[in-house]
Amino acid sequence: MFAPQGPTFRELAVQALSSVEHGYDLLAPKFDHTPFRTPQSVLTPVSQALLNLGPFESGLDLCCGTGAGVGVLRQVCRERVTGVDISAGMLAVGRDRERMTTTAPRIDWVRADARALPFGPVFDLVVSFGAFGHFLPEEQPGLFAQVHSVLRPGGRFVFPIGAPPRPGSPAYWALLAFDTAMRVRNALWRPPFVMYYRAFRLADVRAELIRTGFEVELHALPELGLRPDGSPRGRLVVATRAR
After folding, report:
1. CA 3 → CA 8, 18, 30, 37, 156, distances in Å?
2. What is the largest CA-CA distance in the chain?
3. Which residues form the Methyltransferase domain (predicted)?
4. Going by C-beta distance under 8 Å and a sequence separation of 6 or more, which residues neighbour residue 78?
5. According to CATH, where is 3.40.50.150 located in the chain?
6. Which CATH superfamily does the domain covering 38-164+201-241 fall into?
7. Neighbours of 99 (CB within 10 A)
8. Tell me: the pLDDT tens digits for 89-132?
9. Which residues lie closer than 8 Å to 210 by C-beta, 6 or more apart?
10. Angle, to 10 degrees, between the axis of helix 140-150 and the axis of helix 202-212?
């Protein structure tokens, strides 16, 4: 699962016993060599879908990490791209990489909490990849309200979401074990490290987005394949701020 350049078991253990912010600061130099970075097999179909939805002028990568989503936004935004993350270490890695790239648009890297975004309604597009497990279900209304507030009328909040694993499958038990271990860790150790893979459910998320004032569409991502029942393994949530 990890490249030779990735973190050691000891480094992962230290990260897991830290806060979310400090843990990612520690992991940042080796993050791109872990399976936690969104793979290109997901980024590419999302990029293509956004090209079909665009064009866009300005885009925000929410919880950008080292910039996987920033790379997507560079392909579909003509004027401005911004990455925002709470981890200064992750932002530094992304910023250093982008210094080697001279193509437009301009990229800004901003350290901020996604629950208190320091922007007005200046974006046409907000994307996020793999970050929602860091927010408890009760935090979703505030998080979605923040995204709504930084989008221009008609702007879109877009993110991929995978189908849940079939109950009883190896993936089902693996995710259940991870979330259970994380709950035990957080009950016994401070500061907490919030990361739960099974807490971000499509039906609940869709309902909350609608309550926030979004119009929600779901687009299949056929490149990610089909489940045994013929349903897509991955969908793209496209939430549009009503004008």
Report:
1. 10, 23, 9, 12, 35
2. 50
3. 60-155
4. 55, 56, 57, 104, 105
5. 38-164+201-241
6. Vaccinia Virus protein VP39 (3.40.50.150)
7. 9
8. 999 999 988 776 666 688 999 999 999 999 999 999 999 998 99
9. 216
10. 50
